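Appendix C reproduces, verbatim, an entry submitted by the partner laboratory led by Prof. M.T., so that reviewers can inspect both the input and the predicted structure.
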Amino acid sequence: MPNVSITHEEVDAAISAMNTSRTEVIQPAVEAAKTAIDESLGRDLILPQTESAINDQYLILHGNLIDLCNAIESFANQFRDIKEGMISFDEQYAEAIRNPK
């Protein structure tokens, strides 16, 4: 079994990186792309059926990208929960050693 060493700071850094990538890169890009598609359909593309088909497919893609953002947030929260569980376990174990029953 491998020896694993993870510090709380490393977990916090991973959580921060996930949340920063989500809020500062992915979500803004998703919304910018949606705005660009919304603005160009009906103005630049004058093929009603094609426009509708593109819009339908883009709405599916946009929904998937929103799901991705939510999954990143959920994964970051799982990291936070694991870290907090590790801290709690450490505190409980130390207390049991200090005050055995």
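The chain has two helices and no strands. Additional entries are available on request from the coordinating office.
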